[in-house]
Amino acid sequence: MSDRDRDDKARRQQQAAAVETGAAGRGALSQDELDELVASSDTGARTPPGLVGKLILGVALCWSLFQLWIASPLPFMLNFGIISATDARAVHLAFALFLAFMAYPAERSPIQLGLGILAPIVLSGLFIYGAPSSFPAWWIGLTGAGIIAAILLGSPKNRVPVWEWALALVAAGVALYVFVYSDELGRRVGAPIQTDLLVAVIGIMLLLEAARRSLGPALMIVATVFLVYTFLGPYMPSIIAHRGNSLSEVANHQWVTTEGVFGIALGVSTSFVFLFVLFGALLDKAGAGNYFIQVAFSLMGHLRGGPAKAAVVSSAMTGLISGSSIANVVTTGTFTIPLMKRVGFSAEKAGAVEVASSVNGQIMPPVMGAAAFLMVEYVGIPYFEVVKHAFLPATISYIALVYIVHLEAMKAGMQGLLRAYEPPPILRRLLVAAFIIAGICALSLVVYYTMGWIRPAFGANAGYVVFGLLTAAYVALMWIASREKPLELDDPNAPVTALPLPGPTVRSGLHYILPVVVLVWSLMVDRLSPGLSAFWATAFMIFILLTQRPLMALLRGESALVARIRQGFDELVDGLISGARNMIGIGIATATAGIIVGVVSQTGVGAALADVVELLSGGNLMLILLLTAVLSLILGMGLPTTANYIVVSALLAPVIVTLGQQNGLIVPLIAVHLFVFYFGIMADVTPPVGLASFAAAAVSGGDPIRTGVVAFFYSLRTAALPFLFIFNTDLLLIDVGWVMGIFVFVTATIAMLLFAAATQGWFLVRNRIWESALLLLIAFTIFRPGFFWSYVYPPFEERPGTEFVQALEDSVPGEGLRLRIAGLNDIGSPIEFVAILPVPEGETGQDRLDAAGIELIEDGERLMIDNVAFGSPAQSAGLDWDQTILSVEAPVDAPSRYWAYIPAFLLLGGVVWLQRRRLPVPAQGRDKETRHA
Question: SS3 for 225?
Fold first, then answer.
């Protein structure tokens, strides 16, 4: 080794040590080191110099261009390059695998090394055990030995050795095998040939090694355990045992069909997630991330704990376009954390505020990480509905976090930063705000009705007209921005003499809002598919990136036009590369999680798991939810949010719905999936592994474990919400109108603020223990008013099952009649559950019974269902033939459950009165008292 090589190696070791030291809380990191920290977790920490580095960047660029091509209408317009969904998944995975081995060097810690070697050994043994006698098993051993050899030979950070080139090319090749031979594979589904088996064996082994490199060992371990369960089913404990599967069955299920690796999760990553991640990357390259931070800082910096509130708001806005907690922490935290420390927050509290707000970005529509698009497929509802259900909990969670920051500022007696101007009277500010809101509403109406007129008027040319109008709006907003000083990210460590002016700051980047408007309009108004919506928003974002620099130069009368055009093109290329590199981990995660989903569908472990969970919980729904929450947190410590959501929802979502029915609670599937998702993102906060907490500690110089603990307490509101919306689905705006939706929003916000005040131990002044307990009780009552009210006024009258027809006749059409049913489940075991049958129109009970599609038969004192019509309301409610109706719960007239708010608010008034008496007397008041004396 030459002296220069030794110097380079020493320098790299020093840089790595600096990153590790900073992440451990011993000193804040520089921006370059923070970029390296994000790269190691999100984009890949290896970009070697020279031709190989350019090749990695070129492949990432090609991946983005490929995804834009298949998402666009161009293949169908030109009748060229049309690729089926399954083929697109194969190409998508090939890109992800190639870049995972090229851009992610493998960690060399003893644990990582041991796990990296153990997994191929275990998998090779399993595959040889399950292989048919005619299959040359030595191929399997050779594959495992080759991967182990590559791991042992090392993985340098500054170059790609020949053995990793081999891993990357072979991994891409086995993924592309599904694309190249798709027709042949389609003709022999269920009867794979030897080549199919070999490709599947190599593919699964390399996929798990890629997961270890890009995501850490946890997902690889979980997937390996599930594969062990698949092959060794007969040797498992009796409650979860199954017949076991052969290599042919596993290879066919996991690699040839769309049940495993190339299943729904990878399909969502291919069709939707990539474009949204790319859109966020392009928006950030254009300068929108800096714009959001500066706007939040200018608007909220003057408040108590202002920089912390600005951190929450800017993270919320960044979270609209970013699905990564760690990238969000580093993007906004490098600016906000030092400012929070300057106004009085400790390093740990400053980091915790940033962590809590950044992690919340993943539950903020419209992007919500990748999970929102997976919910579309798994729950089977439109994307608009997913966003509608997720909107209210995410919004009130952010409002509560701003309030928590306010309480922390109150505790410490903090003040805001100095304004750059003297604010006008409050009445004038309210009038200005009202006019702005009215103007936005009026503009929205004009746009809505104009768009409604353009389409029928211009027909096929409507798209060109809409683009022309968008371009005109873009040029107008750019002209407004050109009148202001360009936004630059200030040094947060420099002294702040005054806050930036809100007006000029807001006006300097209004054009960044246009692509977001295009995205939200396409999703919410035009109801286009998420993929097509993201494509049009990304296409407009590309237009902005190419034109904003030269256009701004023209509007400002600058001369360097050619340089600005080149700068715009360079930023576009950088954005396309960043978007692809951000997707490497997500692509690998969704493919690897597909293995777990495939095992669940192949072995029937879901039904067995239901028995295990029911046994552990005793059938108690609250215990089941607690078990699910704990499992999500444990898995989330090592799994990315998306993979965690896929695994836990595949395993436990159906169990919660089924056991909820048995407990008399009809839990909507979307509520269960959001429950799982919320606790999956909580793992980014929860110590000892919370990665977002380590990233924040690297910025703040605080202790990462203490940062995680504080962030966890700040995030308790996020942990409480899932339990609340399981039992009160009004919070998810399910079957709720506009007026009721506003009412639910206001009351839920009040309840969440009270919950935050109770958990933080401060309301108007420091709480006494019994005051915190009362605030929790009041918050629970507001969130779920029916809990106590139902003890006073039961909402249902229970009648024997034999009175079912009479209960139908007595009920109001459109109401839900609750039936307790006894029957058999899918595997023939006895089961009791509650079904809700909508009461149809009809003169008599028998007429309504016929309209519901039910035929009954009496068997002594039992009333049994003899037949259920196909596609009838009864079938939709889960009724089937040979079931017994045990009892009927008919709705009764009772006072509204919202009357429970009266004692709750009276109790709140008492707490307010008691705390106001303890408020410190202002200094001016004490002076007056002294003078009077």
Answer: helix
Amino acid at 350: A
Tokens standing for 123?
């998998």
Name the helix (H) or strand (E) containing 5.
helix 3-23
3-state secondary structure of 661: helix
**Whole-angstrom Cα distance, residue 482 to residue 485?**
7
864: β partners: 857, 884
CA distances in angstroms from 505 to 209, 299, 649, listed in the order given: 47, 9, 43
* 3-state SS, residue 396: helix
The share of the chain scoring above pLDDT 90, in percent, equals: 23
Contact at 8 Å (CB) between 406 and 304? yes
End-to-end CA distance of the chain: 87
Judge whether 599 and 226 are in contact, CB under 8 Å.
Answer: yes
Distance set, CA 711 to CA 404, 496, 715, 778 (Å): 11, 27, 6, 24
In the prediction, which pLDDT does 37 show? 56
Q: What's the token pair of residue 266?
A: 């990878």
- Cα–Cα distance, 653 to 53 (Å, whole number): 43
pLDDT tens, residue by residue, 5-48: 444 443 443 343 333 334 333 445 555 555 555 555 555 567 78
Residue burial 337-351, b: 16+ Cβ < 10 Å; e: rest:
bbbbbebbbbbbbbb
Asked if residue 688 has pLDDT above 50, the reply is: yes
Q: Report the sign of the C-alpha dihedral through residues 123, 129, 132, 133, in that order.
A: positive
Which one, of 271, 226, 240, lies nearest residue 593 by Cα?
226
Is residue 920 packed enough to be buried (19+ CB in 10 Å), middle (13-18) or exposed (0-12)?
exposed
- What distance lies between CA 282 and its chain's CA centroid? 20
Separation between Cα atoms, residue 577 and residue 589, nearest integer Å = 19
Residues 6+ apart with CB under 8 A from 114: none
For the segment 68-100, what is each residue's pLDDT rounded down to a tens digit? 999 998 898 888 888 988 899 999 999 999 999
Distance CA 643, CA 516 (A): 27
Residue 150: HSE in the Cβ half-sphere, 13 Å Cα cutoff? 26
What residues are paired with 855 via a beta bridge? 867
| H or E segment to which residue 884 belongs | strand 884-891
Q: Residues for the chain: how many in total? A: 933
The C-alpha atoms of residue 338 and residue 438 are separated, in whole angstroms, by 37
Q: Which two tokens stand for residue 143?
A: 């594959």
- Give residue 28's pLDDT: 54
Residue 14's pLDDT is 36
Q: What are phi and psi of 879, to 5 degrees?
A: -85, 150
Q: Tokens in use for 79?
A: 């009748």
Among 771, 775, 699, which Cα is nearest to 338's? 699
Q: Is 429 helix (H, G, I), strand (E, B) or coil?
A: helix
For the record, the structure tokens of 352 come out as 């915790």
The span from the CA of 923 to the CA of 433, in Å, is 33
In this prediction, residue 118 carries a pLDDT of 92
- List Cβ<8 Å contacts ≥24 apart for 76-85: 84/182, 85/267, 85/270, 85/271
Q: What is the DSSP letter of 570?
A: H
Cβ atoms 323, 368 nearer than 8 A: yes
Asked if 782 and 898 touch (Cβ cutoff 8 Å), the reply is no
C-alpha to C-alpha distances, 570 to 111, 134, 374, 573, 581, nearest whole angstrom: 41, 55, 33, 5, 16
**Residue whose pair of structure tokens reads 């029928």 in the numeric block:** 456
Q: How far is CA 584 from the centre of its chain?
A: 17
CA angle 193, 194, 197 (to 5 degrees): 95
DSSP 826: T
The answer to whether 746 and 699 are in contact (CB under 8 A) is no
**In the predicted model, is pLDDT for residue 440 greater than 80?**
no
Cα separation, 717 vs 739, whole angstroms: 25
